[in-house]
Amino acid sequence: MSVESCEVVAGLKLLAEGPVATVYAGQWGGAEVAVKVFGEGFDRETTASFDRERKALDTLRAERAILPADGVTELPDGRSGVRMELCRGSLGGLLGSGKALAVRDALAVGWTVAAALAAAHQVGVVHGGVTPHNVLYRQSGELTLADFGLALRRRFPRDPMHTVEYAAPESLREDTLSVTSDLYGLGAVVFAALTGAPPFPHRTGQQPGERILQVLRDPVPPLDVPGIPPGLSEVVGRLLAKDPADRPQDAVVVAELFERMYRSEAGHNDVEDEFDDFAGTAPAAPPPPPSAPLSEP
User: Fold this and answer.
1) Which part of the chain is the Protein kinase domain (predicted)?
2) Residue 83 has pLDDT above 50, yes or no
C-alpha cells in the first residue's frame, strides 16, 4: 500500500467529526482532497486487509458510483488517515432538516447506491455501513457511495447506536455485515430519502434498548408518499425485511429496478415497469445524472 508522509497532504482544515474519525480537507499533488483520520494507527493486519479491499475496488475505477480510497497517510502523532477525493456534501446533510427529496432524486439515490453495491459485491467487497452520511455528491454533482469495506470497521468499531436506524437486524444481533445487510442499508437510505426520516427514527425519551427492539421487531412503516412509482413500496419493503433470506439477494437486479423506475419517472417510458423479479443477471446500472436539488449543498 502507498503510505505517504503527513507532509504530503498540506493545509489540513477540519471538515467534520464522526464517531471514530475526523475528516479534513487538504491539498495533495495540486488537488483538493479529503483525509479521514482515525484515532490510532493501522496495525499490520488492518493494513493488509484494507489493502486487499482497496486493490479490489481499484479495478472498478470506471464505476463512478463508487468513491475509492486513494491512499493512506501516516500523521506524526501515529494516527492513520485515508485519502480520497473531496466531495461537496452528503445525503445526510441534505436530510438533516427532515425534508424529503423529490421522488426522482430519491430514485437517483437508490440507483446509484445499488449500482455501487452491485459492482463492489462482484469483486468480493462488502460495504458494511450504508447510511446517508456516506452517500456523497462530487464537485460535479454526481452521486457516489464512499467508505467501503470491513477492515476499518473491524479495527475501529462504531457504537451501534450511532447508526441504529440504518443497521440490519442481524447486524445489531450478531454484528453480521454482509451483502444482504448492505441491501438493508440501501432500503433504509431510500426510505429516508423519500420520507425525510429513516424507517425507525429516534423518539424523544427512547432508551437504547427500545431503539434496538424497534428495528428487530416492529414492522416497517408503509411508504405513504404521494406519486411514488408502482412497485417502489414493495421493493423498499423487501429490502427492509427482518430476515436476510427474505431480501433480494443480488444488488445487480435491485439496481436495474431502480433504473427502470428512475427512467420512467424522468419520462423515458421505453422501459417496462416490472418489479416482481428479484432473480436474474441484469447489468449493473451507471449512476444517473443528478437533478437540481442534489447538485446544490
Assistant:
1) 9-259
2) yes
